[in-house]
Amino acid sequence: MLRRTALLSLFACLTVGVSACSGPARAKPEAGVERRIKLHSYRKGQFFELIDEATRSRVEHYSEKRANANSKVLPSDVMDGFVEFLSDNEFNELAVDGVAPAQGSDGMAWALEFVEGGKPRYVFGYPPQTKPEQKRKLDEMLVVFLEVYGSVYSMQVVDVKPGETPFQAATPAQKRP
């Protein structure tokens, strides 16, 4: 039920705008404070990132040529809702200070990293001896991240190498010498 309510609120922010996101007063970050949420997928060796539009212009971000299109600029009101969702699901209690490791170990499938004002914190999915209630909260964080990420529109310019398409790397037979 909590996940459904959180998703409905976040999607309302995406489609309706700021007025749909008003709710209980919560502390807003100072203007210009960087906020990013990054999912590290250890099994696939990939990352997916949401960046607050308060500190990164969509046009500027999407116009820069990148190796991949894994980062998206998220409207600030949606980022506010996502940060509130993380807080409500005990991200701060479960999180470790610092940057998430580049590789997982001990069966760690993923990490969710939140950076605010240059201070990174992260949670692992799923550390050994995770209690069922904690696992449920970690599952919620992962699912909501993926659903929000998939709902954010982007038009990233990517650097495509010979033999590749924007959606698939070249196979050895397609690579040119």
Describe what you observe in this structure:
The protein is an alpha+beta fold and 177 residues long. It has a domain at 30-151. It has helices at 2-15, 58-63, 76-88, 91-94, 132-151, and strands at residues 35-41, 46-52, 71-74, 96-97, 110-116, 119-125. A six-stranded mixed sheet has the order 3-2-1-5-6-4. Strand 5 and strand 6 form a beta hairpin. The chain is globular and about 45 Å long. Mean pLDDT is 79; it is low at 14-26.
Summed up:
This protein has 177 residues and is α+β, with helices and mostly antiparallel strands.
Strand content: 15-25%
- Give the tally of β-strands: 6
Q: Report Rg.
A: 17 Å
SSE pattern: HEEHEHHEEEH
The number of helices is 5
Question: Helicity level, as a percent range?
Answer: 25-40%
| Intertermini distance | 55 Å
Average pLDDT reading = 79
Major beta-sheet overview? 6 strands, mixed
Strand order of the largest sheet: 3-2-1-5-6-4
Structural class: alpha+beta
Globally, the shape reads globular
Labels describing this entry:
5 helices; globular; 32% helix; 177 residues; alpha+beta
